[in-house]
């Protein structure tokens, strides 16, 4: 399970990259990861896919303001391999690519659940946030299910 990690109001969030097709990031409703309220994001800004060798790749889809991989601007429509920890920036969105989930110590997870529960959140909400299954991640990013 590959994913990108990002921060949303101080909370680490995750978006799972589909294994069978390209994940499209942009501001249109039909994309997989919708980034609204960011004028620097194109309708279909960039995509992450798996090539025929099983390597994850990133492609700038001809965006107006560019996609940056580790602070280097990608060429439009060029295929660039991704590796663990690569930083992707598009507009105000910053994500980190991870080819597989990082192992978490269960103590860390219990502490995170306890802290969120004390803030008044319900268990289901907390668990959805931890595993990244929320439909709307924040006011500027939505994930299509």
**Which parts are unreliable, with pLDDT below 50 for 5 consecutive residues or more?**
134-139
> For the terminal residues, how far apart are their CA atoms?
16 Å
Number of strands: 13
Number of helices: 2
Q: Describe the global form.
A: globular
- Classified by CATH, the class is Mainly Beta
Q: Structural class given helices, strands, pairing?
A: alpha+beta
Strand content: 35-45%
Query: What's the rounded overall pLDDT mean?
Result: 85
Looking at the overall shape, the CATH architecture is: Sandwich
Radius of gyration over alpha carbons?
Answer: 16 Å
Strand order of the largest sheet: 9-6-5-3-4-13-12
Give a description of the structure.
With 145 residues, this protein is an alpha+beta fold. It has a single domain (3-101, 136-143), classed as Tumour Suppressor Smad4 (Sandwich). Helix content is 15%, strand content 36%. The chain has helices at residues 106-118, 123-131, and strands spanning 3-8, 11-16, 23-26, 33-35, 46-50, 56-60, 68-69, 72-73, 79-81, 87-90, 93-98, 136-138, 141-143. The strands form two sheets. It has a seven-stranded mixed β-sheet, with no helix packed on it. A six-stranded antiparallel β-sheet has the order 2-1-11-10-7-8. A hairpin with a 2-residue loop joins strand 7 (68-69) and strand 8. Helix 1 (106-118) packs across helix 2. The protein is globular. It starts with a strand and ends with a strand.
